[in-house]
Automatic annotation (TrEMBL), chain A:
ABC transmembrane type-1 domain mapped to chain residues: 96-286
Protein name: Carbohydrate ABC transporter permease
Native organism: Streptomyces prasinosporus
Lineage: Bacteria, Bacillati, Actinomycetota, Actinomycetes, Kitasatosporales
Gene3D superfamilies: MetI-like
Swiss-Prot/TrEMBL keywords: Cell membrane, Membrane, Transmembrane, Transmembrane helix, Transport
Annotated stretches, region: Disordered: 1-27
Alphabetized InterPro entries for the sequence: MetI-like, MetI-like_sf
Transmembrane segments: 36-57, 101-122, 134-155, 167-186, 207-232, 267-286
Amino acid sequence: MTTTATPPETPIVKDQKRSRLPKSARAGGTLHGGPLAYVILTVFTLVSLFPLVWTAIAASRDNQRLAENPPPLWFGSNLFKNLEIAWKDANLGEAFLNTTIVAGISAVTIVVLSTIAGFAFAKLRFKGRNALMLLVIGTMMVPPQLSIIPLYMMVAKLDWTDQLQAVIFPSLVSAFGVFFMRQYLLQALPDEVIEAARVDGASSWRVVWHVVFPAARPAMAVLGMLMFVQAWNDFLWPFLVLTQTGNPTVQVAVAGLGRGYTPDQSLIMAGALLGTLPLLLVFAIFGKQIVGGIMQGAVKG
Amino acid sequence: MATRSDIAASPVKGGAAPGRTPGSRSADKDDRRRSKLSRRWQRDARWSPYAFVSPFFLLFAAFGLFPLIYTGWASLHQVELTAPTDMNWVGLKNYTRIFDDDFFWNAAQNTLTIGIISTVPQLMIAMGIAHILNYKLRASTFWRVAMLAPYATSIAAATLVFVLLFGRDYGMINWALGAVGIDPVGWQDDKWPGQIAVSTIIIWRWTGYNALIYLAAMQAIPQDLYESAALDGASRWRQFLHVTLPSLRPTILFTVVVSTIGASQVFGEPLLFDPNKGASGGAEHQFQTLGLYLYEQGWVNQHLGRASAIAWTMFAILIVIGLINQLISRRLRASS
């Protein structure tokens, strides 16, 4: 944010070889952004961050203050009190534990299964490979929401309502994960390395363990974070099979706060803030890696 | 399947010991041992790929494909939420019921309009932001991470905040509008304001993410394309139009498809934006989407069979969208 204070007046780097090209030729990553670029980015960033900051502002006030004009623009003194009440009211302690379990199991399973499947699709030859890969890509396009009714019947039949396994099992599979790992391993794992291991007599599983997993580690970490975020924020399915009093996830608990009969808006905001903070923290720490992962997953090969 | 021998051509090209044909007729003990090993090696090479992809496909079959198909079967039955395992055959009655329901058509229309209002500006803003991010910038990582913060925010948390921001009497947005002399807007009460508000939440959450996807594609454009365009005297704006946009066509199509699928599934935002805390998407169903309508039929009105019919109708719509996408991308490929 401090960048706007000193919009860097950009002297175009004098590049001998390129100096004969018109200035406009240096687009696409080599041209410095002018002041306008920083202004636009700052506005966009403020819009992106404002609702989050305002969540904290509203959570630090009381209900009465939120029913006055103009709306508060700075912090009040009730933040910790509200956080504490919301924590208790929404059963957030249990919700955090539950969501960590669900998102953790989901992320680890997806990462492991996607890595070995992605390895097979990227580096091994087998009959039906292309057809199966097309199937994977096709399933990426089918939203899980269309499958919820039979899943709900299954859960009812197994008597899994209000139990975490009802949320865990359907979350163990991600076509995106397979696609993502395949793209990564295609370019990150040289064929020669696999060949060398095989010449040494390593079985396929040994190759996976000693060659593929080490080579895939950066992508596995990114995929794990993306899947953790997705599972953490998943709403519809947990909302259907879990209740506020029966093993809620964070989203169920937060939505329950909003849909409950608590008229206190500052408490609702405190709950929303608590539910969001862990992921914001993850993004603050691993933001660079997550950005890289999203951009890497976007380039199709 | 077993007759194909192209597997032998796979990992080992160098032709070390295991590559030798297993039937070598030497009586040598050592050789036989080696051929046994080699057979095991070949079996491993032949079947391990299937072992590697099977966990994914088994889980997908159990929790993705089977439920999707079974939804179609359930849509031909009367199924009550209270007894989800009792199914009575009713043929196509669920479909005629929903097609006769005005609220279905209302929800379909709302899904379409919310889809357009949320997707078009979202992708256009994302394109502009990506273009700016593609310059050499100070603190480039900071900008990229900051615009992902909404993506880290859940639908539930984001919607609850926007409910307050869009509040009619004390909301920040109406207050700001009032400052420039515009009367308070009933974001939660009226049709178009409601749909714009719901779309705003979607735009807010997804624009930064899509900007990163465009940025990734822009960085893959070869630099010399710009240079030769510049030598031809093309301005920066013309370069954007004639170099950047055409190169991004596959990516644009990809994001359009993904956003369209996402838009067809919108559920949490209109659910939590409803001031009456129901599932009707506002008192007059003014921002009820198909996803929300499905939920209302299945879990509020307790007709899982009817909800299944809605799900399959949505599935059919998505297949049509997929086919159109195929058609367009084939034409794109042919033209380039």
